[in-house]
Amino acid sequence: PGLQAGTSWLHRDLVFLTTVVAMLLLCTSAAAPRFPPDCSHLRKNSPSGVYVIQPARSPPRVVWCDMDTEGKGWTVVQRNSHDTELNWKQSWTTYKYGFGNVHSDYWLGTEYLHLLTQQGTYKVRFVVRDKTNVTHFAEYDIFRVESEASGYPLRLGRHSGDGDDYLTLYHPKKGGIHDNMKFSTVDKDQDQYSGNCAKSYGGWWYHRCQNILLNAKNYIVWPGFCDNGDCAASLILVKPTDVC
């Protein structure tokens, strides 16, 4: 009888303990923060600044959300300044997971660009500020970065903005084209040039080598606005679009 009573008490204790653990896990899960998949999910009156987002199948990421540019809700995936302290000649792995400081110059991470743009249809705005502090941009109504297995190639849609289209149109006297090009870094050459473009500048979607280049130290180039690489700063902004 004593053994049976002890077994009965043990059984009740185990049931009670299991119930308590289940409740704690449920409470912990319910209390866990749910981060937005990108900056477009912030309230429209939110200020520009640092936020945490979590694209599908991605860990949480700290980013700068631009709530001032036309349309609001832009996720900043790249920021660079001409005299940056960043070294853009980074390895494939460093580019994959991102580097820099979201308060100043940074790269979100090629893998996170891929995960972010797999969630739906996104558009992109490439922005530069020239040496006279005039801002220019090129917007594409589709923006997508494919998987690492395919080389993180760039996919762009229709162009709008001031200046000519130097990303999806072929310019043989410059660097060729950027659309559909794979990403190249100092240790992973995927361009179509005899050398490695990234060794001279930094990671980018090169052809032979570039028309436009935003990922470089002391060299931000945009034909017609800063042909000599003397743009003061650059930004790459993304957000969902209605294009199917």
Automatic annotation (TrEMBL):
UniProt domain Fibrinogen C-terminal: residue ranges: 30-242
Signal sequence, start to end: 1-31
Pfam families: Fibrinogen_C (PF00147)
GO cellular component assignments: extracellular region
Coiled-coil annotated residue ranges, if any: none
UniProt entry tagged with the keyword Transmembrane: no
Keywords on record: Coiled coil, Disulfide bond, Glycoprotein, Secreted, Signal
Predominant subcellular localization, coarse grouping: secreted
GO biological process, one term: blood coagulation
Chain segments annotated as transmembrane: none
Location relative to the cell: Secreted
Alphabetical list of PANTHER family matching this protein: FIBRINOGEN ALPHA CHAIN (PTHR47221)
Protein name: Fibrinogen C-terminal domain-containing protein
Lineage: Eukaryota, Metazoa, Chordata, Craniata, Vertebrata
